[in-house]
Predict the structure.
Amino acid sequence: MKIVYVIDSLASKGGAERVIINKMDYMVNHFGYDISIITCYQDKDTPNAYPIPTGIRQVFLGIPFYSQYKYRYPYRLWVKHSIDKQMQKALTKTVIDMDPDILIGVSYFQAHIVTGIKCRAKKVIEVHEPRPFTLSDYGLSRGRLSSWYMRHYRNWYFRKVERQADIVVTLTPGDAHEWRKARKVQVIPNFTIMPIEKMSDGKSKRVIAVGRLEWVKGYDRLLDAWKIVSDKHPNWHLDIFGVGTWEQKLKNQQKKLGLEDKLTIHPATPKINIEYSNSSIFVGTSHFEGFPLVLLEAMQVGLPCVAFDCPFGPSAVINDGQNGFLIHDGDIGQLASKISILIEDSDLRSRFSKEAHETSKRYAVDIIMKKWDTLFNQLLTD
């Protein structure tokens, strides 16, 4: 079976990029598939954030997509239109030359172009971001013209993908419902192959959060909650691991709240498995999530998890009161309260820890990849 993935770039570290690479590696080594990936905005001189495994071909298109941002509206719209035409021409020719059985567009990236290519391949859109937040204004400040354009473009884009894709694959049932007008929808969650060197014993006085230092991760909300927790439990420490444009903003907030000795912001680390193991509680405060890999990783090592019930990822994994706590999205007081409850009750931490580890077993790589293998074979026999 010949499969071609289409993605904007593999130059940035992110959950989707990591999952796609692990998935391609598994399909080559376990199913014997012929796998290629087209990186549309990345050129050969830009290194990948994660190494491409042996046996996978990477095709660089090097389309200068980001050059449009040098211009203001409305001229930017003309530049974007020109780039889209260039993209459509280059991508169409590349895909037709490669002649795959299955063509997979990763997330919303150029999905309208991917699904519109006239070739024999079955078209799959693999969604990694909740639809309500795709191409939206959340966390952005747009002008009226920009907002008007994006609103109409977004509606047009979704209608086109729904009509053209053979199937849309989402990470959660909640997001599948958002795509209910598509020709076919299926839920296949993520997996993680993070190595486990040791389980958390729940004895360290340490809470951990992991992810990009950006608006979407909601760390400003976490710091506000930690101020409340820290005042009550001054001997506990919060450690955040990640990089991003919000780093200085968060450090300024940390200083303002007087938390200099109560939390540490660390750069991303390849040994995050050890950092999970040396912690006792995981906290997630995102505004939205596709399917939070970090939550699954934390559960693997037996960390009880506390997370905002944002669309749509945390509720797909956390069973409130069984393996962690789901918090009404944005309720800082409740978040602080539930963290404090886990800090004060070691027996509850232990019970949640065992349940969290059991939950993570449902997302083993062999189980999830079997679902993909079944889907691909069904598409080719329909």
Summary: The chain has two domains: 2-191+364-381, 206-362. The chain has a mean pLDDT of 93.
